[in-house]
Design brief:
By secondary structure, the chain is of the alpha/beta class. Helix 6 links the parallel strand 7 and strand 8.
Length: 333
């Protein structure tokens, strides 16, 4: 939702910001002894967006599949989609709030990652319902899962964004603005919300992903540039093989995966563990099965319908036009 690129405030944030401002170059080499093929990969500094890259680095999966990866951190998914379109990235990671961008043809979803449960509508102490946000200032990172959870919560309360004063903000600004009480509420996510709680321990959580489980799922995903998928099939297959290997390791070694993520982000293990608690990790076998039986298409269709209602898409998008599940399954080793 997790967006992810979540810059946190306070003393702990210093370490995170330092990590997020630095690109991470993976191991390099080739499983066949030849020259490694270079790949640029975007990610967000949280468990969802970082764990597979941390595993791939530690387990030397890039080298195993003949790749050398240059990982670049971003604060959200939409920025990565822009970078994919400009040719500055080959692959990236997005949370559910940015899924309308590949659905509108701006990128391909090459792999589903996890199901997120980290998004919240949070409010200052004393505000106890969504209805009480009417006329109040609400910060939100536009086009992210924070935007999505806010829209869903307002709709459930019989309201729209026109009923509140929405202020577009980047994640780090929301942390500081909410902590200093310059905004009344926010559409946001964990782990950044946990950082805000240190400054505002009695903040109120007005809505969460689980509140809408019967309407829409919140998958996070890995994406690729349209031209990369169309013209660089071998590279795409290698990257998907890396992701599959890393997914297998993660589902079988969760504690170690959390530790590796913390090491890559240079933040405490307990902080990543708390972040991972808001994530449903999906195994490779589960993803293969759900691709075959149409479950993932159902998730994406539900999100597409939401994005039409939210004004992000003009009409529903067929998941088969942007989710390359066949390529994901073909990369099985």
């Amino acid at each position: 939702m997790r967006t992810s690129r979540r810059l946190l405030a306070g003393a702990a944030a210093g370490a995170i910001v330092a990590a997020l401002l630095t690109g991470c170059e993976s191991d390099s080499g080739s499983g066949s002894g030849g020259k490694a093929e270079e790949v640029t990969f975007g990610y967000i500094g949280d468990f969802n967006g970082t764990s597979l890259l941390a595993i791939a680095n530690d387990q030397k999966l890039w080298a195993k599949h003949g790749l050398k990866a240059d990982a670049k951190v971003f604060t959200n998914g939409p920025l990565q989609i822009q970078a994919l379109g400009a040719g500055d990235l080959d692959f990236g990671y997005i949370g559910p709030g940015a899924m309308w961008l590949p659905a509108s043809g701006q990128a391909k979803v090459v792999a589903i990652n996890t199901l997120g449960n980290a998004d919240r509508v949070i409010a200052q102490p004393g505000i106890t319902s969504i209805q009480q946000l009417k006329g109040k200032t609400v910060g939100v990172p536009e086009g992210t899962s924070g935007d999505m959870i806010l829209t869903l919560a307002l709709k459930k309360a019989g309201m729209t964004k026109q009923d509140v004063k929405v202020v577009p903000m980047d994640p780090s600004t929301i942390v500081s603005a909410f902590s200093s009480k310059k905004i009344d509420a926010a559409g946001f996510w964990y782990p950044a919300t946990a950082t805000i709680k240190k400054q505002v321990p009695d903040l109120v959580e007005l809505a969460k992903n689980d509140d809408f489980a019967s309407e829409v799922s919140f998958p996070t995903a890995f994406v690729a540039g349209n031209q990369v998928v169309a013209n660089e099939k071998a590279k795409t297959e290698k990257v998907l093989a890396v992701l599959r290997d890393a997914m297998r390791y993660r589902s079988e070694n969760m504690d170690q995966s959390i530790a590796l993520t913390a090491k890559m982000l240079k933040i405490p293990v307990d902080q990543v563990k708390a972040d991972a608690a808001n994530v449903k990790v999906l195994s490779v076998d589960e993803l293969d099965t759900m691709t075959k039986d149409g479950t993932i298409d159902k998730w994406l269709t539900g999100m597409s319908d939401y994005f039409v209602q939210a004004g992000k898409l003009k009409s529903p998008a067929d998941p088969k036009s942007y989710y390359t599940g066949d390529l994901f399954m073909a990369a099985a080793q």
